[in-house]
Amino acid sequence: MKKKKRNQEPYHSTQKFTDFPMAETSSSASGSSSPITNIPQDQLFSILFLLPVQSILNFAMTCKKLKSLAYSDSLWEYVCKRDWGHPSVDALKGSNHLQQLPWKKLYQQVYQLDSVFCHRLLADSPDGDEIVPSPRASHSLNLVSGCLVLFGGGCKGGRHLDDTWIAQMGNNFRKTIKWQKMHSGIPSGRFGHSCVALGDDFLVLFGGINDNGFRQNDTWIGQVTVHQRLGITLSWRLLDIGSIAPPPRGAHAGCSIDNKTMLIHGGIGPSGTRLGDTWILNLSEDLCFGTWTEVVVRPCPPSRSGHTVTHVGGTQTVLFGGRGLGYEVLHDVWIFETCEGNWRWVQVVFDLHNVPRGSSLPRVGHSANLIIGHRLLVYGGEDMYRNRKDDFWVLDIPRNLDANRLMWRRVESKGEKPNGRSFHGACVDNSGRFLYVYGGMVDGLVQSSDSSGMRFDGEIYLVELVL
């Protein structure tokens, strides 16, 4: 495969703020005019908008006039939109607490995130009769059309579930949730499947395992619609994909790359062996047809299951963790890049000096979601001894892979913290500031009928980034 030419981005959103104090206190005392100060302010503004954050801060140190422009709130609001996207900025504007902060300060706080606050959401049952999903694990949880969509999973006794539940969340923070069971009857029951959101209204579901151990490779399209009078509707249909499909599997990883593309990797195949193949699904404009294509490149991630793949914007998708061929639990990080029809996997090293002694990064059955600031928020999972984790980690992703360096940082959790869990479902809202976590396997009392000491959980939590 020919070496592809990567686009050089004009900024780097994972900018550290180690130089902020210097930029805050330094300015030129010279009152002399320079050619750059004669450039019209609107043109200087346009130039600054294209610069990396550190260059903007350096620019501010030249003289008082330019410092005033480089620190202007309007410029930093544009920088936030550039680096985080409009949905995140619009959501932050709606926060009574955060809208009082200058955008430059808010930008700094996002990249210095050191804690999350957890809320346990209670069932909204005005009649006193709780209608809630049963406890489960290895299910899917997605946010589409402003609604949480919960499908399938496994439960006590190794049985699969075939139910779909929806809860309309809205834009305002609430500590209650009202589930509604949907009676669609399809897709068939399964666990260990992948289900990803496409755009604002659609879902794509692939594969999974039923309670007979049968691995599947069917592809489904779901659409969630919120009607003012009819309420919420969900429709599923089997996608026409032609004659080519990935081999059947479960416990694989999947994500959407854009509004018409899905990626899957690995999993457990029909013979029980772990897979290491990568497939991409390209959908037609009307979402009526799809074409699966296998990505064959070297190097590539080793075979595994129970891992995550997460699209982080642009051309990058991040793979992390899982269980390997020898049942070892992994902590390697790979980035999948796609550009102009060319694909490649790149393994990226990371610094360990920020990993506290006694902490363990290897995990399987965790969640990894893109949050505000072009970073992954990794939660939970279990180690090779099936010890379940309750920790949160932030992984900074470089936009320029030539840097070949990642930074892990553990984040403190406060509030009503979830128990350690694995194979739960998790998704973020459109702002990238709130994470929903539902279900999973948690530690429980050992009973005579179950010597594993585990149980399935049915609680849902809202995890808020503390800014």
Automatic annotation (TrEMBL):
<feature type="domain" description="F-box">
    <location>
        <begin position="33"/>
        <end position="79"/>
    </location>
</feature>
<dbReference type="InterPro" id="IPR015915">
    <property type="entry name" value="Kelch-typ_b-propeller"/>
</dbReference>
<keyword id="KW-0880">Kelch repeat</keyword>
<dbReference type="Pfam" id="PF24681">
    <property type="entry name" value="Kelch_KLHDC2_KLHL20_DRC7"/>
</dbReference>
<dbReference type="Pfam" id="PF12937">
    <property type="entry name" value="F-box-like"/>
</dbReference>
<dbReference type="InterPro" id="IPR001810">
    <property type="entry name" value="F-box_dom"/>
</dbReference>
<protein>
    <recommendedName>
        <fullName>F-box domain-containing protein</fullName>
    </recommendedName>
</protein>
<feature type="region of interest" description="Disordered">
    <location>
        <begin position="1"/>
        <end position="35"/>
    </location>
</feature>
<dbReference type="InterPro" id="IPR036047">
    <property type="entry name" value="F-box-like_dom_sf"/>
</dbReference>
